[in-house]
Amino acid sequence: MKTILDLTSRKKFHPINQKSIKVLLGCSFLAALIGLGATLAANININSGPVEFGQGVAQTVSCSEGETLTITPHSSFTNVEGDGSFYLSSVTVAGIPAACSGNDFIFSFYGESSNTKLNLDSRGTQDTPYVYFTVADGVGSASAFTKPASGGAFSTSDVSATGFTLTILHSAATADSVYKMTLETRVNVGGATSLGGDGGDVPITNSLLNVNLALTSASQDILEISGYRNDVRIVAVASCGLLFIDDAIPGLSTVLGYQDPLGLSATEIGFVGSPTAINQALDSMMYDPTGCSGSPTIATTVSDTGSSSDANIAFNPENGHYYQWVEDSVTWLGAFNAITGSSISYSGNLRGDIISTGLNSSRNSCPYSFNGLCGYFATVTTAEENAYINQKVGGQQVWLGGSDRSSQGSWVWADDRAPEYNVLFSNYSASATYAAWNGNEPNCYGSDCGAFNEPALQMLAGDNGLWNNFSENGWEDHYMGYIVEYGDSPADSAVTYAPVTRTITLAIAP
Ligand SMILES: [Ca+2]
Ligand SMILES: [Ca+2]
């Protein structure tokens, strides 16, 4: 919800002319400092009447629940040969109540009557800075998001748990041109872990097609992360076209299953690194729209990395789940035991010892955990999810979490920590839900399905992700890696950071 801090003009202001300014400055430097804004610069009207630069005005905003905060605009003098002017230079916001933590403060400045916002950057058009403000552990943080064509038009300083100062680094708004200011607040999507960026369009014209476009060079606000203390993971997915980032940024590594984005390009890229390195990478992210038309999108997700050993977990924006490919060489039972903490050994009894007799219920821990999520033997419930896993393992064969141990031919998801535990997904007659069986699968080996049956679900090698049922116990050398999935398990605990996605919609001119 957006509430305008009602800052409307009620009184026309007539600034002191430039001649008077020069005279006073010439007389006394001290006088100029004292008078800065207070008498020499234009007023701005904030709600109840003219308020001068340097003088704070108490206001309430939508997030403040009736508590007032104080907004103070400042101006400063820029001298040039033969002339010089006062410019709008900064705005201090103080007394921000705790309820406003996690909000964006959006600043706009106007002249006397035009609806066009004043340009705030002498190097280009910069008219709407906003500051993302959070408080954690009693310490405030603020990030000024700006339009990056100018390489940083705004900054924040004097940040405390209750306020900050937004500085306009290259102001183009002379003080006597500023008549009105609005300050709006909005809840920042994703709270303390959000990406910056306002989701605006990046204009792409025909003349720019077939070249690499910096996502951060047009009207799009910079993509930036804030609120993280440890390494984070970024996954960016373009609906069309190619993405890549600067290969000269130190401290980045590629997420397993994603093409190396460091200087290469791909439709999906994933990388992890420190918040600083990530912001450098996001700043450098480029997009090649070759072959695209209409309105392609780029969805960029930031999420927690977890421990360093978790860096190779891929994120699927389609369902918000994470997938870990454990490149081991084990039987299906070995994978099941590793994921569930069970200790089932093959005893010749191929039936009934996982699901129906409740051995799985002995599980009381999550050997694979990530960011508060309990890992489970992967469940594949859509073609998209199947294709995703197949792509991320590079077409290699892997075990999935399906089994028909309990009832021959009735295939269910076997891990009780999976959200689809014991859900029937296939039987011999038809797929109960989604299944991707290869031709003639599932089958049995030999004439007696009870002797050497194949109760383990395998994704076959190859690029189509088709399924086979296989022996689960190593018979005939059935060893391979397996997939651990994270997300929506009933055993999940609170996540440290929920993934946050911002989608940029591009507009390619016809
Ligand atoms: Ca799943
Ligand atoms: Ca088979």
From TrEMBL:
It holds the Pfam family Lectin_C. This is Unannotated protein. It comes from freshwater metagenome. Residues 360-469 form the C-type lectin domain. InterPro entries: C-type_lectin-like, C-type_lectin-like/link_sf, CTDL_fold.
